[in-house]
Amino acid sequence: MQFSGPVSVFHDRRLPETAAPAGYAALIHACELSVPLPRLLSAIGSRHRIIEQDGWRIYTPRHAPEASLEGHLTFALKYEGLDLAVLKRIFLDVKEGDIAELVRQKPTGLYARRIWFLYEWLLGRELQLPSADKVSYVDAVDTDLQFGGTGQNSTRYRVRNNLPGTPEFCPLVFRTSVLNEFIAQDWKERARAVVSEVPKDLLARTAAFLLLKDSKSSYVIEGERPPQDRIQRWGRAIGEAGRAPLDAQEFLRLQGIVIGDERFVKMGFRQEGGFVGEHDRDTQRPIPDHISARHEDIASLMAGLIAFDHSAENDLDPVVAAAVLAFGFVYIHPFEDGNGRIHRYLMHHVLARRGFNPPGLHFPVSSAILDRITEYKSVLESYSSRLLPCVQWEATQKGNVKVLNDTADFYRFFDATPHAEFLYECVRQTIEQDLPNETNFLRSFDAFRAGIENMIDMPERTLNNLFGFLRQNDGKLSKRAQENEFTQLTRDEVQQIEALYAESFGEGGGGA
């Protein structure tokens, strides 16, 4: 196995200074692997301080591992955490006997036992090794670096399997300062505190409006303007999110709700390739931004995703778990159409199922995403852009793609850290802004309506129309409205109504 010396460029990624690739980078080079590169690569520099820049962490000479399979695997597990897609490709590339010998040399070693466990867990085959001696258990996932599950002890390796998924689906999330701070702030309790101050009848109206707003926003994100009945139908589906665990039939049911007209959509799980992107105007050749999982792999990937949802011992933070499940689904892209809306539904599903939402309320996550649409697209591309170069494909006669290589592991295992950070930002927005804003708006509207009713007998539809005119014109009733729809109002009444609006909503207000 040949390891690289100091370089200034690695796989088209410039290093901040000339340095020798270490850990995963060294192993990817030595094994000539075609895999999505980790977001952060490691190398050994000449300076005696660690620097982090441009997707690289440059370590000092004293961190340099032994130039061997064991040396770089140990370095990776110690400093870089688990990249299961890369590890599996390494294990498939090296000889089985090399891993077995590595364990024999250090049968009680923490990293040797973790490597042994990961080899058998990822490949589903046993090495010819006796069970480990009775030494202290070590976690498969270093929870100082990444989020893990509760864990089950495996006596064969004396390793606690705290991987949050199965070999069919197990994305991982790093413990960044951003996520640690979000978790420490306990947004679940903050949401309950906000809700506890809202009267029940007002909360019910707030929840209903936010649900409808979220459903509409989810379609807008996809560039669609469906009729109101489809928006309401999807809103009702979101309102039921989390009541039952997922299964294949539930996914098919959700797609049926999302797709209003099935005449031009092949319903059900894909039976051919799929991609997100454009077509060349002249040739109709695909120009993919993201290539979906092969249709041959969908059954296995969806089974893994469903198992992740069912996992009783999976005690991941609810927002982290929601990001893993939802973004894992959208990368797999199992349907011809409807993937984006179901992807966002899954966020609601996990948050509700794990008791993160206050009872009776679903956070308008899609509304927050719509407000952050550029950031949302950037988060989706944070993995798609690294995945795309590893997918070999050819165009079909129908303008679709046919994947030519084995890519399933790239959808089973990926780094969902940016996705979890983004979703937490959206949850914070819904709790700090959307929920109180809508509640305050309804309070203000109730005050405005009561004031109008004390002044004038006016049907609900006319009152809503009056409010709409005022809201559109910064609290003033336009001359056109006074001369047409509200010609029967006196000048004094118009002034009183405008004053009431200003008192209820503030000068130029209008709330949510």
From TrEMBL:
Domain (Fido): residue spans on this chain = 246-396
What Gene Ontology molecular function terms does this protein carry?
A: ATP binding
Q: Does the keyword Nucleotide-binding apply?
A: yes
The cross-references to Gene3D superfamilies, in alphabetical order and at most eight, read:
Fido-like domain
Where along the chain is the active site annotated? 333
- The answer to whether the entry has keyword ATP-binding is yes
Listed Pfam families: Fic
Swiss-Prot/TrEMBL keywords: ATP-binding, Nucleotide-binding
Q: Where ATP is bound, by residue?
A: 337-344
Xref: PANTHER family = FIDO DOMAIN-CONTAINING PROTEIN, FIDO DOMAIN-CONTAINING PROTEIN DDB_G0283145
Its name, as the record gives it, is Fic family protein
Say which species the protein is native to. Answer: Bradyrhizobium niftali
State the organism's lineage. Answer: Bacteria, Pseudomonadati, Pseudomonadota, Alphaproteobacteria, Hyphomicrobiales
